[in-house]
From TrEMBL:
The lineage of its organism: Bacteria, Pseudomonadati, Pseudomonadota, Alphaproteobacteria, Hyphomicrobiales. The keyword Chaperone does not apply. It comes from Microvirga alba. This is YeiH family putative sulfate export transporter. It is a multi-pass membrane protein. Keywords: Cell membrane, Membrane, Transmembrane, Transmembrane helix.
Length: 338
């Protein structure tokens, strides 16, 4: 990375770091006054970033660093997190879990698409909502859009509300633990199946337990891998042969590098190759990068956008999420996850 690129990224990254340090400081204050952090730094960073973005529209000077923090830094953080994951953890939840994840994705896409069409949304818009809800939010929307030939305004509307709803899910999902009496394992599976983005899974599970965080991240990454088959299937159905469609089927798009890195580190950890001494350095680094990424994600959410998104889109995305939660809870009960 040359000096010019570093100069472009520095302002935005610095802003995200400042917000992150404030969030960490507020968490320490919580611990000092109440004995425990009711809101982790990860969540506080999202809230602070969202508040800043709603009150202030960053100029072009800040955008490159914010985008870099929200994308590249979070991808590095997620990859590093693989060093703490053992594949044996998912087996403890039941041998049918991976198959169950695929079923949840397929059923949710069908249900979300049907709901969106019933509400009068166009076919392409309905598919964007369905894939974004069922797989991985904005990333799925961005991957599916060129394959189905979605309009730019449809993509923008889908991403805008998904970003806002994703933050709401992160803040409210932990309440399912006392309300439904979920165990740490059950909650980890639920978070992995329902939360939109990988780093948001961390924000939703860290306040509950380490087990929830590890299992939730692993389930979420398996869910993200479902994007590849879905994009291929949609491309076949659409019958597109344009360069854009071929690009959308590239290995890089279907299997992002950070997922490959995560799985690689998880495999090394499972085989006992990564010692605890190295792990003690990797995990704090991953945590700090995640907090910085959360601040950047928050800076990309403008609450005022909610008022500009059509009511039918809002209702479609919200109902689709509720359907996803219901299906996920059903899977947890069906598999007997304890």
């Amino acid at each position: 990375m040359d000096g010019k690129r570093i100069a472009q990224l520095a302002p935005g990254i610095a802003l995200c770091i400042v917000i992150s340090l404030i969030a960490i400081g507020l968490q320490h204050l919580e611990e000092f006054w109440s004995g425990r952090p009711y809101l982790e730094a990860l969540v506080i960073a999202i809230l602070l970033g969202t508040a800043v973005r709603t009150a202030w529209n960053p100029s072009l000077r800040w955008i490159p660093g914010i985008v870099f923090s929200a994308k590249t830094l979070l991808e590095i953080a997620v990859m590093l997190l693989g060093a703490s994951i053992s594949f044996q953890a998912v087996m403890q939840a039941g041998s049918g879990l991976i198959f169950g994840i695929a079923v949840v994705v397929a059923v949710t896409i069908g249900a979300s698409y049907g709901l969106s069409r019933l509400l009068g949304l166009p076919k392409r818009m309905s598919m964007l909502v369905a894939c974004g809800n069922a797989i991985c939010g904005n990333s799925a929307i961005a991957a599916v859009a060129p394959v189905i030939g979605a309009k730019s305004e449809d993509v923008a509307s889908s991403i805008a509300f998904t970003a806002i709803l994703g933050v709401i899910v992160v803040l409210t999902l932990p309440f399912f633990v006392p309300l439904l009496g979920l165990s740490a394992t059950q909650y980890g599976v639920l978070a992995g199946l329902t939360v939109y983005a990988v780093p948001q899974v961390l924000a939703a599970t860290v306040p509950v337990s380490v087990v929830s965080t590890q299992l939730g991240t692993l389930v979420k990454l398996v869910r993200v891998l479902m994007l590849g088959p879905v994009v291929i299937l949609l491309s076949i159905i659409a019958g597109r042969s344009s360069p854009a469609a071929r690009n959308s089927l590239s290995l890089k798009r279907l299997v992002p590098w950070f997922i490959v890195g995560f799985l690689g580190l998880a495999a090394l950890r499972s085989w006992g190759v990564i010692p605890d001494a190295v792990l003690s350095l990797v995990l704090p680094t991953a945590t700090m990068l995640t907090v910085v990424s959360m601040a950047a994600l928050g800076l990309g959410v403008d609450l005022r956008v909610l008022g500009r998104v059509g009511g039918r889109v809002t209702l479609a995305v919200t109902l689709s999420l509720l359907v996803l939660i219901a299906i996920s809870l059903g899977l947890i009960r069906l598999l007997g996850v304890a």
